[in-house]
Design brief:
- The chain is an alpha/beta fold.
- The chain has one domain: 3-Layer(aba) Sandwich (Rossmann fold).
- Helix content is 39%, strand content 19%.
- The protein has a five-stranded parallel β-sheet with strand order 2-1-3-4-5, with helices on both faces.
- Helix 4 links the parallel strand 3 and strand 4.
- The structure holds 1,3,4-trihydroxy-5-OXO-cyclohexanecarboxylic acid (DQA).
- 1,3,4-trihydroxy-5-OXO-cyclohexanecarboxylic acid binds next to loops.
Length: 148
Amino acid sequence: MKTALILNGPNLNLLGTREPSVYGHQTLADVQALCQSACDTHGFALDFRQSNHEGELVDWLHEASRLQAAGKLAGVVLNAGAYTHTSVALHDAIKGTGVTLIELHISNVHARESFRHHSFISPAARAVMAGFGVPGYALAIAGLAGLQ
Ligand code: DQA
């Protein structure tokens, strides 16, 4: 069974209380439960993580690439949060490892402030999705299934 690695970046641990008009009322634990159900549907094992630290996300992408090389990774779904808009390190980690990765945002970043319109992740990602709310995580996992 392959693993779907769902990585969440800074401030996503605050889901549920953080700007509910933008991100909704569901918590990160709710997101994890949704991802578990999507992984059950598609026959993936779930590895679900969150970090507020850029370097830890980089380390996890390196770990993912080792899993991919072993044929055990379905792919990565990355919501890099604000690092999306700032992190050359995450861009380089995705490019440098060649890991299969879907960039995900709960909100439609293109309909928000202009500083959210640029992504360092998008040019290195296999696919990009934004604006479906929390259900987007399940859609991204379905997308990974379609890529197998
Ligand atoms: C986000 C959008 C980012 O601009 C923001 O910094 C986040 C969350 C989203 O899921 O919509 O932290 O990635």
